[in-house]
Specification:
Elements (H helix, E strand, L loop, with lengths): L30 H6 L2 H46 L18 H37 L21 H4 L6 H9 L9 H18 L5 H20 L1 H61 L6 H13 L2 H14 L9 E4 L6 H15 L9 H10 L24 E4 L2
Protein name: Transcription initiation factor TFIID
Keywords: Bromodomain, Coiled coil, Initiation factor, Protein biosynthesis, Transcription, Transcription regulation
GO molecular function, one term: histone binding
């Protein structure tokens, strides 16, 4: 409840209709203000109520900005933490902050990958030529003739051949496939070796050990493995190691570029967060200054009334008084039984907080209120130091110059 001016001790008890100026928004007037304020004071109270609502909106907006700033700080921490872990994201894939690999670096790596792939294809063709050489050597062997063409099960009267052999293969088919350039050829030397071994494995499976075909297939399989180890195994090992190293190098370079891009983005995000924090701090300082300027000085009569009412408070209410004073003007607590409160040294905002608190304690409002919005607003006044009676010197009093301290017993 706002304190009355000293010259209006005899306030009317009936509600009075207020004639608001056209510039004033239709804000509801609490019934208690209608009873204790004159029309001119009510108009000022309405304006101050609007000021408090504006201030509340500013505080809420500042809180929203603080929440957004907190999210930005969390994102910076997330990126910093992610840098310590192994990157599993594909190169160039944007993350939550929109990080992408620099276009120049991406183009350079893409070009190098293309050249590396072309070199791999040339080396693969050389390996395939070696495979063809080994195959021709096998086909020129004197015992190779049974394996040169696909088995004709009908002509050779082998009715169960396709029941026993599920995947037929022959050396002629392998050579034709090696010669093809239409995409149906072998992709790796290992595929060639697997089919050659399949030719001899099929023959040894269908023909009993000791038969001519079984012996011929066993001998040719042995010869093929010898030639393969001599001409291909070390070359394949070198090729696999080279490809593995190239892939690792490209991955490391891409990871380094991604890490650099993330670091740049994180630094920018951190700089933006710091800038917003500074702006928010200046905004909060301005809000505090604005709130302080809206509190007029308390007159000596009002201070005397406040001091007298403080002395009347029950012991269980005094701790809240101390909390209000410490919150606005931090002081060192003393281990004494009594706390001396010098009202002359307290800022106006603190004095009006104490005034409103004491007024609520001395004159508690009824539990049931017809206007719940009025209750919420009157309670919010104590939380934002922009209240107090109408600004400007009230009639019948002057700002206090000196007042005796109030002594309170600690609970």
């Amino acid at each position: 409840m706002e304190p009355p001016g000293p010259s209006h001790s005899a306030a009317p008890t009936a509600a009075v209709v207020i004639e608001r100026p056209s510039s004033v928004s239709p804000v509801p007037v609490p019934p208690n203000l209608r009873q204790i304020l004159t029309p001119s004071q009510r108009e000022v109270a309405l304006l101050e109520r609007q000021d408090r609502l504006k201030m509340k909106r500013k505080v809420l907006a500042a809180k929203q900005r603080m929440d957004q700033l907190d999210e930005q700080v969390k994102e910076v921490v997330r990126v910093r933490t992610q840098k310590k872990a192994k990157l599993s994201r594909p190169a160039g894939l944007p993350d939550k902050m929109g990080i992408r690999m620099p276009a120049g670096a991406l183009k350079a790596i893409k070009g190098e990958k293309q050249k590396a792939e072309e070199a791999r294809e040339k080396r693969l063709q050389e390996l395939m030529k070696i495979c063809l050489t080994i195959l021709r050597q096998m086909m020129q062997h004197k015992w190779a003739w049974p394996f040169m063409e696909p088995v004709d099960a009908v002509a050779m009267n082998l009715p169960d051949y396709h029941e026993v052999i599920k995947k037929p293969m022959d050396l002629g088919t392998i050579k034709d496939k090696l010669d093809k350039k239409d995409g149906h050829s072998y992709r790796t030397p290992e595929e060639v070796a697997a089919d050659v071994r399949l030719v001899f494995s099929n023959a040894m499976t269908y023909n009993q050990p000791g038969t001519d075909v079984h012996i011929m297939a066993e001998e040719l399989n042995k010869k093929f493995n010898e030639r393969w180890r001599a001409l291909m195994e070390h070359k394949l090992a070198e090729e696999h190691a080279r490809r593995k190293q190239e892939d690792a190098d490209f991955k490391n370079r891409e990871s380094a570029i991604i890490a650099a891009a993330e670091e740049t983005a994180a630094e920018k995000l951190a700089a933006d967060a710091e800038k917003q924090a500074q702006e928010l701090e200046r905004e909060l300082d301005a809000l505090k200054q604005e709130a302080a300027e809206k509190c007029r000085d308390m007159t000596i009569e009002e201070k005397r009334e406040l001091g007298a009412n403080l002395g009347k408070l029950p012991s269980e209410k005094l701790q809240r008084v101390v909390d209000i004073i410490i919150a606005d003007s931090p002081v060192e607590e003393e281990e004494e039984e009594d706390v001396e409160v010098d009202l002359d040294v307290l800022p106006p905002s603190t004095l009006w907080k104490l005034y409103r608190y004491v007024s609520r304690c001395m004159h508690p409002e009824p539990a049931a209120r017809t206007n719940s919005a009025t209750t919420a607003d009157s309670r919010s006044i104590g939380a934002v130091p922009v209240g107090g009676p109408p600004r400007g010197p009230p009639s019948g009093g002057h700002p206090a110059r000196s007042l005796s301290p109030v002594v309170m017993e600690k609970t």
